[in-house]
Predict the 3D structure of the following.
Amino acid sequence: MEENEIMEKMPSDDTVQTVADAFRQLGDPSRLRIFWLLCHCEECVINIAAATDMSSPAVSHHLRLLKNARLITATRHGKEMYYRAADTPMVQKLHHTIEEIAKISCPEWHDKFN
């Protein structure tokens, strides 16, 4: 492939920034754990805190960063906000990659996307 062809296929600045933001957020072990959990279920802050052995304020901080990176979404159910992984190709691929790297089996995910 010639240099001109390579340059024409270069991702846009916005695309590169989106991917860099996702990797930056998932580089933190707590956020990675929360992201993985939310790939499997929709949960509120209190339940995420209990599952990850973290305080609710700490979980809220991590959720805000994951949401800003467009890795998770939030939905209000009554007075509670519930969070789950965003339904995007990038998030699905990140989830799959994390499980492959960590050698984690996730039957629901594999059944849904394979």
In short: The beta strands are 43-44, 72-77, 80-85. The first strand starts at residue 43 and ends at 44.
